[in-house]
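Example (one chain per record):
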Amino acid sequence: KACEVTSWCAEGSSSPAPCDAGTVGRTEGLSSKDGCEPCPQGSWCSAGKDIPCPRDTFNPETRRSDQGACRPCPDDAESEEGSASAADCVCRAGFYARWHNGTLSCEPCPIGANCVEPGLTFEQLPLEEGFWRAHTSTTDVRRCPGNLEGSACEGCGGNRSCVATNYTGCRNGTGGAYCGVCA
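Predicted structure:
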């Protein structure tokens, strides 16, 4: 009888031996423990089986043999089962991602930004209609003035220039402070 998956069987053995902790047996009929593979990232391995890290955790290392290898995502972040990297953690809806020196933090969405989708980054922070920010590297979101008539945008948008069609909040063809300049 062929040696079962997750184990190896020495020649003449009457029973299978499980692959060592931190390794996994993926094929039937292994004849030595050298046939067991290193436990992959995103999992931990015991008794020759690989067990995916639970949701909202990740494991960037191989050959891990306990669930303690699965590190939690940062506060207000989530990940799929079996995630292998901190980059697999994404901020929940209502938050946006800020990376600093390789570390993720999930910041609350500022007033005027639209964070209804999970996984938003700082640079992609979408704005609600009627709000503006100077550039994609600031979270200083401001409400647009109610009336821009008489500004450079009269004729290319008037008081409807801040309509949130890009990440600064300006309608295409407008720009500058509060979208008050025609391109």
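Caption: The longest strand covers residues 95-100.
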